[in-house]
Amino acid sequence: MEMLDLDLLKTFIAFVDGGSLARAASAIGRTPSAVTAQMQRLEEIVGEPLLIPQGRGRGLTPAGEDLVGHARRILAVHTEAWLALRGARAGGRIAIGTTQDFADRGLPDLLRAFAASHPHVRIELRVGRSLELGSALQAGQIDLAITMRHAATPDEAAVVSEPMLWLCSEKGLATRQEAVPLALLDPYCGFREAALNALDAAGRRYRIAAGSASLAGLRAAVDAGIALTPRTRRFAHSGIVEAPADLDLPPLPMADFAIRLGREAPRPARDLAELLGDGLALPS
C-alpha cells in the first residue's frame, strides 16, 4: 500500500477549495502543469480517477469526493501534531495584524488551535486596513500581518487567493436603478479599484451610493439594500449574499492576500504564519 503524500493532499484540497487547477496553482505557488502532474500522481496512488472534465474545467469523481473528507482529516491531524511539537516550550509574545475579513471568518479557529499548542505564547491582535498594517509591519510594531496583496514582497510567507464577488442584501436592493449603486471603502482599497475597473471595462454606469472607512459601515450600507459591494465570500453572512445573476454584473478578479512576516519575527510567529498559509483557504 502506497502512502498518501501530504504535499499531494495539500494540492488536492487547494483544487477543491479554489475550484480550478489554475487557482490551486496560485494558492500553493506552483505552475498549473506542476499541479496537473501532482493530481495525476495522486490518482496513481489512489488507483482511481479523482478529477473529471466538467464544462471548461474539472470536477470531482465519486472517488474524489470521498477523498476530500479523508484528506482534510489527515492534514488537520498532521498540523495538530506539528504544532504541538513546535509549541510545547515556546514562550514570549507575538503581535498579529489582520484585515477585518479574516478576523470575522477563518482566523479565530486557527488562533484557537495555535493557542492550544502554544500555551505560553501571549497573542496581541490588531485589526485594520491593509496599508496601515503593512506600515506597522515595516515599523516593527507587529510580527505578522494578513494584508491584501498588490505585488509580491520579500516578506511574504504565503499567499491566499479567493474569488471576488458582488454582494448585496439577501432582501435585494431597496431600489433598482440604471446606474449600479456601490458601497465602497475609502481609497486606497484593492476591492474598490477592482470594482470600478470591471464596471468601466464593461461600459456599465455606476454611482457611489455609500462610502465608509470601515467594513462595519460597509456592511450596514449593504445590509440596508442601499448598494452592492465587491468582497470575498467571507463577507457573505448575516443577511448578505451573492448578487443575483439578473443584475448582469461584470466578473471580478481574484483577491490575493499575503501572510507577511516582520524582519525580527520570533519563531512562534513563523509557526503561526505556516499554520495560516495552510488553514486560511475558505472552502467552496
Number of distinct beta strands? 12
Unreliable stretches covering 5 or more consecutive residues? none
Listing every helix as H and every strand as E from the N terminus to the C terminus, the arrangement reads: HHHEEHEHHEHEEEEHEHEEEH
Shape: globular
- Terminal CA distance: 31 Å
Strand content: 15-25%
Rg over CA atoms, rounded to whole Å, is: 20 Å
Number of helices: 10
**Arithmetic mean of pLDDT:** 88
Salient structural properties:
284 residues; alpha/beta; five-stranded mixed sheet; 12 strands; 43% helix; globular
Task: Report on this structure.
The protein has 284 residues and is of the alpha/beta class. 43% of the residues lie in helices and 24% in strands. It has helices at residues 6-18, 21-28, 32-46, 62-87, 100-104, 107-117, 130-138, 190-202, 215-223, 267-279, and strands at 51-54, 57-60, 91-98, 120-127, 144-148, 156-163, 165-169, 180-185, 206-212, 229-231, 240-242, 254-261. The chain has a 5-stranded mixed beta sheet, sandwiched between helices. A hairpin with a 2-residue loop joins strand 1 (51-54) and strand 2. Helix 6 (107-117) packs across helix 10. The mean pLDDT is 88.
